[in-house]
Amino acid sequence: MKTKKFMLGILMLIMILFALGCGQDTDSDQQSAGEQPEATEKVMQLSFATAGTGGTFYPLGGGMAKVINDHYPQFNVSAEATGGSVENVRLFDSRSADIAFISADTAFEAYKGIGADFTKPANILALMTTYNQPTHIISLKGSGITSIEDLKGKRVAVGSPGSGTEHKTKLILEALGMSYEDIDEKFLSFNEAVTAFQDKQIDAAIMGVGAPAAAVMDLGSSLDFDLINMTDDEINTVIAKYPYFQKAVMQKGTYEEIDYDVSTIGAAILICVRADMDEATAYALTEAMLKYTDEIKAAHALGAEINVDNALPTVIPLHPGAEKYYQDNNITD
C-alpha cells in the first residue's frame, strides 16, 4: 500500500512538472509571438510637402513618394498639397513636414532668416537641386498687356499666400522698381487664377511653375492667352539684385498656344528636408531620388531633371546625410 501511494505521488509530481513545462513553453511561444512586431523594423512616416494641385510640385512629389515607397519599405512617404515654398518652410519649423520642394529664393532667405517672410533661420537643409522653374507672366490675347510695365493698375493674380510664386513676385517687382502699390494684387492659387480669368475677374497672372503646367494648359482649353517676355535688361536687373535667380527660357511649343520662345526669370527648385532629420534617412532619400531616376521620369516629365548632373550645387548647405551620399559616390559640382 505504501509502495502504491509512493508511486502515485511520484506520478502526480511528474504530471505537475510536465504541466509546468508545457505552460512555460506556451508562455515562451506567446512571448515570442508578441515580440515579433518589435523585431520588425518600424515603418517611418514621412510627409512630402509640395504645393497646389494645379502646379508641378504635387504630381511630381506624388510620383517620387511612390518610387521611394516601392524600393524602401522602411519608409511610407505621402505627398501633401500645400500653399507652396514659403508654407513648406513653416511646415518644417512646426515639424509638420519632413521633405519639401522649395524654390531657391525662398530656401536662401529661409536658411538665412532674412527677407519679408522670415525673421529667423529656418529648420532647413538641402538634399539636391532639381530643375529651373520659369516664371509664367500670363495675359489674355487682345488685352494689351504685353510687358511687366503694362501690369501697372491691373488686377494681377500673384499666387496664394505663403506660396513660392507670391514670394517670387514681390522680389521681381521690387527689383524692377515696382511693388503691390502699382497693381491690384489678387492672392489666388493657380487653379483659382484660371477660374478668375474665365470669370473676367483678373487681367493677368503670375505663376512660378514648371512647364508645361496643368493650370496653364487648363486655361488654354477655354481662353487664348499670351506669355509675356521679359527683356534682357529686366532679367539682368533682377539677377543682379537677387543672384539666386537665373534666366529661364520656355521654348515655343511648350504650350500649344505659344509659338514663340519666352524669356523670363527662373528659380532652381530644391528638394529640402528638416535640418534635424537623422543622417541615415537623409542619405537613403538622396539615394532613392538619384538611383531610380527612370521611374521618377515615368511619373512626371520633369522627373527627367532630377539627376546627378543637376543635383549640385545648392544655394543652401547640404544635409550631412546627403553630403555623405555624394562623397560615397564621387558626385561633385
How many structural domains are formed by the residues?
1
Output the CATH class name: Alpha Beta
How much helical structure, as a percent, in the residues?
A: 40-55%
**Total strand count, please?**
10
Decide which structural class fits the backbone.
alpha/beta
Distance N terminus to C terminus?
A: 96 Å
Q: Tally the helices.
A: 12
N-to-C SSE string, H for helix and E for strand: HEHEHEHEEHEHEHEHEEHHHH
Strand content: 15-25%
Fourth CATH level, the homologous superfamily: Periplasmic binding protein-like II
The major β-sheet equals: 10 strands, mixed
Do you know the CATH architecture? 3-Layer(aba) Sandwich
Which term fits the overall shape? globular
Rg measurement, Å:
28 Å
Q: Residue ranges: pLDDT <50 for 5 or more in a row?
A: 1-8, 16-20, 22-39
* CATH fold annotation: D-Maltodextrin-Binding Protein, domain 2
Features:
12 helices; D-Maltodextrin-Binding Protein, domain 2; 43% helix; alpha/beta; single chain; 10 strands; 333 residues; ten-stranded mixed β-sheet
